[in-house]
Specification:
The longest helix is centred in the middle third of the chain and has 32 residues, at 156-187. It is globular and about 70 Å long. Helix 13 packs antiparallel against helix 14 (232-243) and helix 13 (214-228) packs parallel to helix 22 (380-390). The chain is mainly α and 482 residues long. It is built from 25 helices and no strands.
């Protein structure tokens, strides 16, 4: 069993490969002709980078109403759906005083909650905060330490810092998105246009600046690229740094395990796993050494969390009007996820051909999100690079992302209290949005499972089989015929 070839050759044109794009192209002259030439400068990758830069710029514009409002009005956040965690955590986690996220100083901890994210995000936010202080004139943080923390919000200087902090982060996220597109376009050299489904994603536009998740997304895209280049150690390093930024890249090792079992290359799995472990340990070491208890907050925060936004657990708790204890959800979510992973493993080893990395990674991460106790709006980004390579079809991506966009709108309306019916307090419309989001994910899961079981339906394998054979070598001049 072998993976689909990803070698060099003529690019697969989406207007001839994807029925949905082919239909749309009829309005501008139809699919590209077989004799069409290429622009000398606008290569596919450069077009993709321009597209994702535009999308990220529009994402910044989408946040403008909240910036103009100073992030104060809940109705503005719900109406324009322009919420971001970054401004609130700038003041709420001590970045306003340039506090190190893992500082174990008692006075700092009395004033600020510990950053509840993995170390990669904390490091980035701290660095962005330090640059913000430099660019805004280095406010006297020792003077701020004498003030009550609830008085910072609304101060003119602090609001200016928040704007600069958000702008710096947005520029870094835009760079991360562009790097992600570059990596995705290089996974299969014949299919760079598959990355366009990431570059122009409406989900990327509206959720890219909600939190720091794009920092992990680019590492996942890089891991997909490194594995396609047969570099297991680099793949492991990228996964390890990704796990230090968000937990979910850890599940990609499960995909690598299945591939290595099928292709009898277990040494590559050992290399990738060892490299991931070392990278994760090195990334976490500064935080752990400076504040072990503060470092543990991420793990305790998630284990103590009850049914939260966007999850099936929240629907079950609200619909049944019963409290579900965090311990119960922890147990059952991990049991269900474990069973899902066993199913993906069996699917992979019994498939007629070794599944592709993106296919297995998508299935595993999707299973985690389906049973997780929370589904924040930006979690769609976790699936995005995996989904566009696992099932590179415009129609299928549109169905899935429309369900995500519907949920994205509903969650802000729910938080604003706009979805509670007049006769009661059960937000049935929000439950519907959650169910439709889950259905959209399961729709894409079903298609990927079918592609694994019947590789002839996999667009990537189909285009590889349809690729023209290489011409026979030309005999040297003067060669005789025997």
């Amino acid at each position: 069993m072998t993976s689909a070839p990803a070698g060099p050759g003529p690019h697969v044109d989406p207007t001839r490969d994807d029925p949905g794009i082919a239909a749309l192209s009829e309005g501008v002259g139809g699919p590209v002709g077989r004799r069409a030439g290429r622009h000398p400068w606008w290569t596919p990758v450069r077009v993709l980078l321009a597209l994702v830069a535009l999308v990220m710029a529009l994402g910044m514009v989408q946040k403008a109403p909240c910036v103009e409002d100073g992030w104060n009005d809940a109705d503005v956040r719900a109406t324009y759906m322009c919420y971001s965690d970054l401004p609130y955590l700038y003041t709420g986690r001590g970045f306003v005083e340039a506090a190190w996220p893992y500082d174990d100083d008692a006075e700092v901890r009395d004033r600020y909650e510990v950053m509840e994210y993995p170390v990669g995000i904390s490091y980035f936010a701290y660095a962005a905060a330090r640059v913000t202080h430099v660019l805004t004139g280095n406010a006297d943080v020792s003077d701020r330490a004498e003030q009550p923390t609830d008085g910072f919000w609304g101060e003119e200087q602090v609001q200016r810092e928040i704007t600069v902090f958000l702008a710096l982060s947005a520029l870094a996220f835009a760079l991360a998105a562009m790097l992600a597109v570059w990596f995705l376009a290089g996974v299969n050299r014949r299919r760079p246009w598959d990355a366009a489904l990431f570059a122009v994603s409406p989900a990327l536009l509206v959720t890219g600046l909600v939190n720091w998740d794009l920092l992990a997304v680019v590492l996942v895209a890089a891991a997909l690229w490194a594995w396609a280049r047969d570099r297991p150690v680099l793949t492991g390093v990228l996964i390890g740094v990704g796990v230090a930024t968000k937990l979910y890249p850890l599940f990609l090792l499960g995909a690598i395990l299945v591939i290595c079992l099928c292709d009898r290359r277990m040494l590559d799995f050992v290399k990738a796993t060892a490299a991931a472990a070392v990278a994760w340990l090195l990334a976490n070491l500064p935080a752990y050494l400076s504040g072990p208890e503060e470092w543990r907050v991420f793990w305790s925060f998630n284990s103590e969390r009850g049914p939260d936004l966007g999850s099936a657990w929240l629907v079950a708790a609200q619909w049944s009007d019963r409290a579900i204890e965090p311990e119960t959800i922890n147990l059952w979510s991990w049991l269900l996820f474990g069973a899902w992973c066993v199913g993906v493993f069996v699917l992979g080893v019994l498939a007629p051909e070794t599944p592709r990395f993106a296919q297995l990674g998508f299935l595993i991460v999707a299973g985690f999100l389906l049973v997780n106790k929370v589904y924040s709006p930006q979690y769609v980004l976790w699936l995005l690079p995996l989904a566009v390579l696992a099932r590179p079809r415009l129609r299928d991506q549109a169905v899935w992302q429309l369900s995500e966009l519907f949920y994205f709108a509903a969650v802000w309306w729910y938080l604003a209290g706009w979805l509670a019916p007049g006769g009661g307090d059960e937000p049935g419309f929000y439950w519907l949005a959650i169910v439709l989001r889950i259905a959209g994910e399961l729709f894409l899961v079903a298609l990927v499972v079918r592609d694994v079981l019947r590789p002839q339906h996999d667009p990537v394998r189909a285009s590889a089989l349809a690729a023209p054979a290489a011409p026979p070598p030309v005999p040297p001049v003067g060669a005789g015929v025997s």
